[in-house]
Amino acid sequence: MVGAVTLPHGGAGRGGPWRALDGGRPAGDPPLAVLGRRFASGEIDEDEYGRRLSVLEEQFGRKAGAA
Q1: What's the CA gap between 67 and 9, in Å, rounded?
Q2: Which residues contact 26 (CB under 8 A, 6 or more apart)?
Q3: SS3 of residue 4 by DSSP
Q4: Which of 3, 11, 29, 40 has the least C-beta neighbours within 10 A?
Q5: pLDDT digit string (tens) for 9-63?
Q6: What is the distance between the alpha carbons of residues 49 and 38, in angstroms, rounded to a whole number?
Q7: What pLDDT shows up at residue 60?
Q8: Where along the chain do its domains lie?
C-alpha cells in the first residue's frame, strides 16, 4: 500500500504565498489578480472586494482607474 502526504504552501508566520523571493518580487500570482479571481468566482462579495482593493491600492500605490 502506498500513501501520500501533502503539505500546505507557505503558512502563517512564514509569509504565506506573498513572501519575497530574490529581488523582493512576491511569490505566486500578483495580489490584484488573486483578488479579482476570488471576486469573479463568488468567494468574496462586492463590498469585500472594494475593501481589499483599497488596501492593495494604498500598499502598492496604484491609482483608481489606472490600468
Answers
A1: 30
A2: 17, 18, 19, 20
A3: coil
A4: 3
A5: 544 445 555 555 545 555 688 999 999 999 999 999 999 999 999 999 998 776 5
A6: 8
A7: 79
A8: 26-60
